[in-house]
């Protein structure tokens, strides 16, 4: 059982200037209190982030929450209304001073990564490179080897598959050794089966190149897979920030739980720091009496037991009290099965997932318990 958690990093003390302590290396990228507004509406609302070299931070959130706008301000193609951007501890942009986009040493990669169709693979990768011909050629070949495309060096983009073109785009963005890589849903145009492999390869290459990466995605699995840190955004704000494990296991609110998976919700009222439910009591430390609360848990944390002569399992401290439900619907989803129950106590539906195949018939009676250490209690 957990009390409402305090989101990581939200309460950080605000200060002016980059967050550098003496003798410490400043973060590669730091944005402070960025605000953007379109037609009077705030679309990025006081967003702050730090990203170290070699680290991937994912901006994760639903459509329209301000992810791309944040990225465009870092790139310098959009001006913030207020806030500052620092690279390696140096101010590159505030409301009066602004380093132009082409001098920010930033690599960009977007969903429609548009290679130049009239240039060969090698010339596409070399496009942003300066310097001697031999040096450029060496860098291009090194990168094409990294993305495993040397065999296409003199081919044109239309000879390549979507996944191969994506890797050329990655090589092109990395060629000038950017200090920061900004990636806006770069994998969303790819076939599902290709995507996992390309994500992993891309991640390995980004780590080797030691850039600070900001990756925008609306897919929780992608963020969990790629990120060192996730910044969960909603309506222009970062609502929670932290390592994927922390964001998943200590969510800031109900919507943060729901963003990563299906959820079940029980309603209750607090009395003496306890919330009474048909599944027994849940601890609600620090929550005043008479506060309405919701107890939120994921379907994989529901335990199922068979009915034994009208009885379920005995109560335990870790799983609480069992409540009786009747199978409404069960489906096999591949790696797991999803079973929906109509609960006896109030007729509500609760969902449980079970590994592998478990497809009981509708009408079957079962007993449900909930793992206490996987529940979240939020005041309403
Ligand atoms: N040039 C613009 N003019 C007016 N409104 C804009 C402009 N660009 C973005 N917006 C609005 O700002 C909000 C944030 O847009 P943004 O593109 O940053 O969202 P997003 O999180 O990247 O969404 P998606 O996942 O759909 O790409 C949206 O409501 C969008 O309609
Ligand atoms: Mg976007």
From TrEMBL:
Its EC number is 3.6.3.30. This is Fe(3+) ions import ATP-binding protein FbpC. Residues 1-25 are annotated as: Disordered. GO terms for molecular function: ABC-type ferric iron transporter activity; ATP binding; ATP hydrolysis activity. The keyword Signal does not apply. One of its GO terms (biological process) is quaternary ammonium group transport. Residues 29-260 form the ABC transporter domain. It holds the Pfam family TOBE_2. The keyword tRNA-binding does not apply. Keywords: ATP-binding, Cell membrane, Hydrolase, Ion transport, Iron, Iron transport, Membrane, Nucleotide-binding, Transport. The lineage of its organism: Bacteria, Pseudomonadati, Pseudomonadota, Alphaproteobacteria, Rhodobacterales. InterPro entries: AAA+_ATPase, ABC_SmlMolc_Importer, ABC_transporter-like_ATP-bd, ABC_transporter-like_CS, ABC_transpr_FbpC, Mo/tungstate-bd_C_term_dom, P-loop_NTPase, Transp-assoc_OB_typ2. One of its GO terms (cellular component) is ATP-binding cassette (ABC) transporter complex. CDD domains: ABC_Carb_Solutes_like.
